[in-house]
Amino acid sequence: KIEVVSSGMDSGAGLRLISKGETFYASTSELTKKSLLKTAKALSAGVSSKTPKIKINLKPAKANVNFKVREPFANAQEPCFTHFVHKIKRPPSEVKIEEKVRIVKEANKKARSIDKRIKQVMVGYGDSIRKIIIANSNGTLAEDERMQLLFSVTVVVKEKGILQTGTETKGGFIGWEIFDEFSPEEIATMAARRAILMLEAQKAPAGEMTVVLSSSAGGTMIHEAIGHSLEADIIQKGASKYCGKIGKRIASSLITVIDDPTLPNKRGSYRFDDEGNPSQKTILVKNG
């Protein structure tokens, strides 16, 4: 059965202040000039009042990628700059709720039919549109618009008291056309087969092993082993094991890691990052 169907809209603004290497943050859900000024004053209360006041002239930032460009705002009172939008063939907002419920039920039915050992199936569908504006004291004014769709199936199997789980998730900054590539039944089948594979798998012996990883399967490991240690604030504090390692070997010569948020329709892609910097392809590790 369908347990939860919900929709809503959230809005707000976050203000960040950096002083003497420390970062302070405050937010408000009221998008008015009065509320923003109140939040800014509260945020800056603990910082020296000797900081000189400056006038900032905001200029629209130039992006490195534009998959699709809309016309600037028609309302002259609003800032005029272009949106970045991934190519969406069929926006989820144009799909009736009944159709969204239908694909959830189809996936649930398919998953339960695959094996009698399947004890529980959870299917989730969600879509959202995020509109983001970033303005900073360097004079940068940047905007991003992200339409996201996610469809997930989780299957729980049980045999002889042993439980295993399989999950398959499809989505990204993409529209309803994703189901032309992956049907709800196919996604459900992938999740069920993964759970069954885990249930029937032999227990791995302890010890050091040689493993082979698919290029599409090592994301989490790379994220933990490299991603966090290359975060700018960690580097600035000298707390990363990669500090001072540019040009030096840190891995096998078979390893190349690329950070590329310019790829179309991917969940990690964006026009500008949360600092207002334009996205770009960056080679983090090249041949080790």
UniProtKB/TrEMBL annotation:
GO molecular function, a single term: metallopeptidase activity
Metalloprotease TldD/E C-terminal domain ranges (all copies): 207-288
GO CC annotations, alphabetized: cytosol
Sequence ranges assigned to domain Metalloprotease TldD/E central in this UniProt record: 91-199
Hydrolase listed as a keyword: yes
TM helices/strands, residue ranges: none
A single GO BP: proteolysis
Pfam families: PmbA_TldD_1st, PmbA_TldD_2nd, PmbA_TldD_3rd
Record key words, sorted: Hydrolase, Metalloprotease, Protease
Domain Metalloprotease TldD/E N-terminal: from-to ranges: 1-43
Statement: the UniProt record of this protein carries the keyword Transmembrane: no
InterPro entries to which the protein is assigned, alphabetical: Metalloprtase-TldD/E_C, Metalloprtase-TldD/E_cen_dom, Metalloprtase-TldD/E_N, Peptidase_U62_metallo, TldD/PmbA_N, TldD/PmbA_sf
Family in the record: Belongs to the peptidase U62 family.
Protein name per UniProt: TldD/PmbA family protein
UniProt source species: marine sediment metagenome
